[in-house]
Structure formats: C-alpha cells, structure tokens
Design goal:
Shape: globular
Largest sheet: 4 strands, antiparallel
Number of helices: 0
Distance between the termini: 9 Å
Length: 95
C-alpha cells in the first residue's frame, strides 16, 4: 500500500533570494541508480509536476507503485554555472 508524500523545497541565490529555475527536475532512483519516477519538471499542477507556491517548489510524490525498499529522491537544478546542474539527494525508504 502506498501513500502520497508532499515534497517541498526551495532554491535561493547567494543573497538568499528565491530563484525560479525552469530546468529544475525531480527524479526517484532505485538502489541500482535506475529512474523509477521522473524526470518531473515544472507544471501547472503539483500532481503531474512541480509547481511554485509562495517561495517553494511543491510536488505530490505517489509511492503506491514502488516496491518496498530504499530509493533516492534527487532534485537537479542549475547552480553556479548556467547549464551545469547541481544535485540534492535524499534517501526515501518504503515499507
């Protein structure tokens, strides 16, 4: 049985100002590094894609189709050098 996880994050510049990045993408990887969800980019609704509300990116991650196990939630975005992506990785465990 799965659930829906509300994923939220923010991107800021050095000065702390919120940054809108049209290239931002979210992926979920299995332990072998294979993509099992995504890539998820910007959209008008937080179910099929990332939306910006306030100064945060939001996404509803459905886990119903993920077998029990460990996964990585990866957010890719443009960082210091335009066109060169930076990554955030978080561990996600399903039961």
């Amino acid at each position: 049985m799965g659930c829906t996880l509300a994923v939220q994050f923010t991107l800021t510049a050095f000065e702390g100002d919120f940054v809108t990045d049209n290239t931002v993408a979210l992926r979920v990887l299995d332990t072998g590094g294979e993509v099992v969800v995504g890539p998820v980019g910007l959209a008008n609704n937080h179910t099929p894609g990332l939306v910006i509300r306030g100064k945060k990116y939001h996404y509803n991650l459905r886990t119903a189709n993920l077998p029990a196990g460990n996964y990585q939630l990866v957010v890719e975005y443009n960082a210091l050098v335009p066109g060169q992506a930076a990554l955030w990785e978080l561990e996600l465990t399903t039961k």
